[in-house]
Design brief:
2 copies of one chain form a homodimer. Chain A is α+β, with helices and mostly antiparallel strands. Chain A has 2 domains: about 80 residues, Arc Repressor Mutant, subunit A; about 45 residues, Ferric-uptake regulator, C-terminal dimerisarion domain (Dna Ligase, domain 1, 2-Layer Sandwich), CATH 3.30.1490.190. Helices cover about 40% and strands about 20% of the residues of chain A. Chain A is built from 5 helices and 5 strands. In chain A, strands 4-3-5 form a 3-stranded mixed β-sheet, covered by helices on one side. Chain A has a two-stranded antiparallel sheet with strand order 1-2. In chain A, a hairpin with a 4-residue loop joins strand 1 and strand 2. The longest helix of chain A is centred in the N-terminal third of the chain and has 18 residues. The first copy, chain A, is globular and about 45 Å long. The termini of chain A are far apart. Strand 5 of chain A pairs antiparallel with strand 7 of chain B. The structure holds a DNA duplex.
DNA sequence: GGGGTGTATGTTATAACATAACGGGATGCG
DNA sequence: CGCATCCCGTTATGTTATAACATACACCCC
């Protein structure tokens, strides 16, 4: 995928929802896992929203469509999507967001604007931290890399 | 309580609790903030425990000593200690841990063992992620860097 | 078809984490 | 004193997450 930093730059959206859904379904077939209606619709909601959503926000949307009203429904669907890499969990926010580039195997990192709440996904690069982990013998299975701050649009402008 | 691991290596412990408390008190005076009894005892508990603790675990300890029994007491004390940098929050665990080296200004990173729950603190280094954030114009105020995996003691041993 | 197996879903209940809001007591200061 | 500020205690509630159990359905094998 091109390395555009999806997040703080506008982009056409209707197309990417459709293609992301199709891609996810293809991946599921390839992996022999099931993209059931609840899971599919959950992913679609996340893609449409294109923002970090709490599990209960997702649940409310599912409920409105008769797809389930109890927390485990949302948590199970989100858990599946996270396992498959279609959705990421943002620990800092206790929230979830659709993956911005599910094609690549990756190791996501996030930038969270504390003012407008926008979350941008970037690629985490193995830094000194990962090296030092290896040195101490710690075997990393998964990383959480999140930065909180101000996105370009929310930074105070210099006075003229 | 002398064989707790800091990181994944054992070390003497009683001394560092005392010195960390003294150092924290000195810092508070220097900064003009108050190290009150609840805050001090909370820090001491965190230092003694030397492990990630939930806010309610801390609260239970405080309560046992008559220092407060309601959640806000613990959350306020922990909030203060986090603000002052004496304690860090582990987002992945919704938990807190005493800072392993409060002397240095820092930008902590953590290694969390999913098997035994031990948490080791390391130094986060600005990697490619931080650079790319700067490029996109995102102004980082704070980072969350956490790795989950297996600590040396919990890794499966090679079969003989 | 009957029966076993596995996966997904539905539901209840509760655990675990976190904060808003109000009041009171101590301290410091003009 | 009157007032502001900070900290603490408490009530009440909000938010996030999961354990545990029950049901439905597809699939495969005999």
């Amino acid at each position: 995928m091109s390395s555009d930093p999806i997040g703080f730059t506008a982009h056409d959206h209707t197309h990417c929802v459709k293609s992301a859904l199709a891609a996810a379904q293809a991946v599921c077939i390839q992996r022999g896992v099931q993209m059931t209606p609840v899971r599919l619709r959950t992913l679609e909601i996340m893609l449409e929203e294109h923002a970090a959503m709490g599990a209960y926000d997702v649940l409310a949307r599912l409920n409105a469509e008769g797809l389930g009203s109890k927390p485990p429904v949302a948590y199970r669907a989100l858990g599946f999507l996270v396992d498959q890499g279609f959705v990421h969990r943002i620990e800092r926010l206790n929230a979830f967001i659709a993956c911005a580039h599910p094609e690549d195997a990756h190791n996501p990192a996030f930038m969270i604007c504390r003012s407008c709440g926008t979350v941008a996904e970037a690629q985490a690069q193995s830094g000194t931290f990962v090296q030092s982990a290896a040195q101490t013998g710690f075997q990393i299975e998964q990383t959480v890399i999140e930065a909180e701050g101000l996105c370009p649009s929310c930074q105070p402008q210099v006075q003229p």
